[in-house]
């Protein structure tokens, strides 16, 4: 599992290590990853641990400010334009925008023996722009966004071109 993004921290929560050409910051909490500055200027190597921590925290604050001042806007490809494109050199599909309108189906595994039809394993097939992508193809495609987050909104087939109304609440129990 990927570790959470670095957070502004205090000196007692990190360990600063210097090498010949790098400075590393490790959180004492193993849930967080480490950050390594490489190559570094001689000035950084000569800073105290507290100065390095302040430098690091200033970087994190600047990044947070940049994100706040430039909010993310997802691009949705207009209806009628292809949402995905194929790259023959890698034999992989990639999204052209940041939103995918797709339909979910399931089909028997390709290895299924016709005599055992009742025991077939359900595997998703995702249809984008009328093209069926296997679960493996779809998985490779969304890997182009590795390191990002993803929200999935399930909507009726006839509504895939619209954002649904959103209600934040516990689901109703239908049992």
What does this structure look like?
By secondary structure, the chain is of the alpha+beta class. The chain is 19% helix and 22% strand. The protein is built from three helices and eight strands, in the order E-E-E-H-H-E-E-E-E-E-H. The chain has helices spanning 42-46, 49-69, 135-142, and strands at residues 14-18, 23-27, 34-37, 84-87, 92-95, 103-108, 122-128, 131-134. It has a three-stranded antiparallel β-sheet, covered by helices on one side. The protein is elongated and about 60 Å long. The model has no long low-confidence stretch (mean pLDDT 88).
Task: State which percent range the strand residues make up.
Answer: 15-25%
Radius of gyration: 24 Å
Overall structural domain count: 2
Query: Would you count the extended β strands for me?
Result: 8
Determine the N-to-C terminus distance. 33 Å
Shape: elongated
Low-confidence stretches: none
Largest sheet: 3 strands, antiparallel
Count of individual helical segments? 3
Strand order of the largest sheet: 1-2-3
**Fraction of residues in helices?**
10-25%
Quote the average pLDDT.
Answer: 88
Based on helices, strands and strand pairing, what is the structural class? alpha+beta
How do the SSEs run, as a string of H and E? EEEHHEEEEEH
């Amino acid at each position: 599992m990927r570790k959470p993004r670095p957070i502004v921290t205090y000196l007692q929560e990190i360990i600063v290590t210097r090498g010949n050409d790098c400075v590393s910051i490790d959180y004492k909490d193993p849930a967080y990853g480490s950050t390594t500055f490489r190559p570094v200027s001689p000035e950084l190597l000569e800073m105290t641990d507290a100065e390095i921590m302040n430098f690091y925290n200033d970087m994190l604050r600047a990044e947070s400010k940049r994100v706040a001042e430039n909010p993310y806007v997802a691009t949705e490809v207009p209806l009628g334009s292809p949402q995905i494109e194929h790259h023959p050199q890698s034999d992989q599909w990639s999204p052209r925008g940041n939103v995918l309108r797709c339909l979910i189906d399931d089909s028997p595994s390709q290895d299924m023996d016709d005599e055992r039809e009742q025991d077939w394993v359900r595997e998703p097939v995702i249809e984008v722009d009328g093209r069926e992508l296997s679960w493996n193809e779809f998985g490779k495609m969304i890997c182009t966004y590795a390191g990002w987050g993803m929200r999935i909104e399930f909507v009726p087939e006839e509504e895939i071109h619209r954002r649904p109304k959103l209600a934040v609440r516990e689901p109703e129990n239908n049992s």
